[in-house]
TrEMBL record:
InterPro entries linked to this entry: Haemerythrin_Fe_BS (IPR016131), Hemerythrin (IPR050669), Hemerythrin-like (IPR012312), Hemerythrin-like_sf (IPR035938), Hemerythrin_metal-bd (IPR012827)
Family: Belongs to the hemerythrin family.
Protein name: McHr protein
Annotated PANTHER family: BACTERIOHEMERYTHRIN
Transport as UniProt keyword: yes
Keywords: Iron, Metal-binding, Oxygen transport, Transport
GO MF annotations in UniProt: metal ion binding; oxygen carrier activity
Entry superkingdom: Bacteria
Length: 135
């Protein structure tokens, strides 16, 4: 069961970043499937935790490139990353404390955020990284 289909529209042409984005898409799809199947709370909690940790690692990868190559949009991009991480942490905390009922509204938010971020914000650094030989 796929919420997000990995297509060329989501590829930036930077292999390491594309692989990480694909992994995030796969995790969102797994989350979607778990909600649809009404999986147990422990499995869902573990996936949310894993997704949060992987997202933080991915953002650190991007931000290291930004620092290394002096990406002009670094501050704004980092703020987008932090906003997303804060939302995922809030989601995780509310879920663990029983104050959140999982719904497809959450998966739709994740889908919209990842696709818009890749195709919008992330697309802004592609030319810079490719000009520096990152592929």
């Amino acid at each position: 069961m796929e919420l997000i289909k990995w297509t060329n529209d989501l590829k930036l042409g930077i292999e390491s970043i594309d692989q990480q984005h694909k992994k995030l898409v796969d995790m969102i799809n797994d989350f979607y499937a778990m909600i649809a199947k009404k999986s147990n709370k422990e499995l869902i909690a573990k996936l949310i935790k894993d997704m949060k940790e992987y997202t933080v690692d991915h953002f650190e990868t991007e931000e290291a490139y930004f620092r290394q190559y002096d990406f002009e949009g670094f501050a704004e991009h980092k703020a987008e990353h932090q906003d997303f991480v804060d939302k995922v942490i809030d989601l995780e905390n509310r879920y663990l404390n029983g104050r959140l009922i999982l719904s497809f509204e959450i998966t739709n938010f994740l889908k919209a955020w990842i696709t818009n971020h890749i195709q919008g914000s992330d697309a802004q650094y592609v030319d810079l990284l490719k000009s520096k030989g990152v592929a």
